[in-house]
Amino acid sequence: MFDHLEDAERAQGVADPAAVLTDDQLEEGGLRQVRAFVRTKASKNALRVQKHRERAAAEGLGQVNVVAPEAARDALKAIAKRTAGGEPLEAVLRDCLASVMTEESPVMGATITATAPLEVDAMVVAAAHAPGLRGWLIRRLAGV
């Protein structure tokens, strides 16, 4: 607040300087005097992080936080890494689904087998319309 009571008397905007409490009165009231140094400028690291975020935003990249089962972690990271690298989302999803799909592999409660690229496209459409986290995530990534 003020270093001394005299400073309070010279301060502008103080209605009644006599109403200002002294340091002793404040300590009796349970307050403790603290002196600190405060950074007024951004640190070099903060400036670097801000520049990185601005560059990513200019490229159309942004952070998305998703709560998902641990089993899906690697697949989600692979999708994010490949799409951030510039690959088209449809191709990434097709590759991910093709690698996950094996014969008689249960996906979202249905048994789907993929043997041809057209069937993989059908699986992408089916997965996008599925309820739950997977369907929502595929719709979100596809911008549908």
List keywords for this structure.
two-stranded antiparallel ribbon; elongated; mainly alpha; 144 residues; 2 strands; 7 helices; single chain
What does this structure look like?
It is a single chain. The chain has a two-stranded antiparallel ribbon. It has a domain of 77 residues. The protein is elongated, with a radius of gyration of 30 Å. By secondary structure, it is mainly alpha-helical. Helix 4 runs antiparallel to helix 5 and helix 5 crosses helix 6. The two termini are 55 Å apart. The longest helix has 15 residues.
Quick gist of this model?
With 144 residues, the protein is mostly helical.
What is the molecular shape? elongated
Query: Helical content, roughly?
Result: 40-55%
Please list the strands of the largest sheet in the order they lie side by side: 1-2
Order of helices and strands: HHHHHEEHH
| SS strand fraction | under 5%
Count of runs of 4 or more consecutive helical residues: 7
**What do the pLDDT scores average to?**
75
Distance between the termini: 55 Å
What profile does the largest beta sheet have? 2 strands, antiparallel
Q: Using DSSP, what is the number of strands?
A: 2
Rg measurement, Å? 30 Å
Give the low-confidence spans: 103-114
List the helices and strands and how they pair.
Elements: H1 5-10, H2 23-28, H3 44-58, H4 73-84, H5 89-100, E1 105-107, E2 110-112, H6 117-128, H7 132-142
Helix pairs in contact: 4-5, 5-6
